[in-house]
Every structure is written in C-alpha cells, then in structure tokens.
Design goal:
This protein has 130 residues and is an all-alpha fold. 83% of the residues lie in helices and 0% in strands.
Length: 130
C-alpha cells in the first residue's frame, strides 16, 4: 500500500510540475515581471526534483525493514509538505503577489532538508530480511 501511495503522489507531483512549468512559460500574465517568472521557475524545478525524491522513496520501501520504513515514511511526508509549502508558496507569491507565500517557502525548504536527512537515516537501518 505504501509503495503505491507514494508512487501515485510522486506521479501527480511530476504531472503538476509539467503543467505548472507550461503555465510559467506560456500562461503567466503579460504584466508578470522577469523576477516573478524566475521565482515560478524555481518552484517548478524544486517540485520536479522532489517528485523524483518521492519516487525513490516509494521504490526503495520494499527493501527496508520496519525502522527503515519509518524513516522512508518520514522522508515522504517531509518531501510532500515541502512541495506544498515551498513550491506552493513560491507559486502563490510569484503569480499572485501574495506575500504570505514567500513566508511559507523557508518552512518548506527546511522540510526538504528534513526529508533528505530522513533518507540518510534510512540508509543506516537494517535491510529487510529475505
């Protein structure tokens, strides 16, 4: 169940990143500044990267015992929350000039770091017995 859930979340995030990348390249309003477009592009790039991180989290799950699976779950949750807060915040800030979006980004960025550290911790847990 875990593997399919995170695989689905990774796929949805990858698809959303493609759609949002197209919107950023072709659909943002004529009054959008170059700085706002660059911020939007940063959000797309980080969403793609972390969609792949979620994919890796899903694919590695069957190879870990209980402790490792806990760390993988923590990583997946941190990556997902990071996408929502960091990327979502930057999308809102760059496309709608809503300042609260920019204030959410550092929290999301911190969650990305937490996710990568959780993967690091998973690497030191026992593998699943065969």
């Amino acid at each position: 169940v875990f593997m399919r859930f995170w695989l689905a979340i990774a796929a949805l995030n990858g698809a959303c990143a493609v759609v949002l990348g197209a919107i950023g390249a072709h659909g943002l309003g004529a009054g959008t500044t170059d700085a706002s477009r660059a911020i939007f592009a940063t959000a797309v790039r980080y969403q793609f990267i972390h969609a792949l991180a979620l994919l890796g989290t899903a694919l590695f799950f069957p190879y870990f015992a209980v402790a490792g699976r806990g760390w993988l779950t923590a990583a997946g949750l941190a990556f997902l929350a990071g996408i929502v807060l960091f990327c979502g915040g930057l999308y809102v800030f760059s496309a709608m000039s809503i300042a609260v979006g920019a204030r959410l980004a550092p929290v999301g960025g911190t969650l990305f770091i937490v996710g990568w550290l959780a993967l690091f911790a998973a690497a030191f847990t026992a593998p699943k017995r065969r």
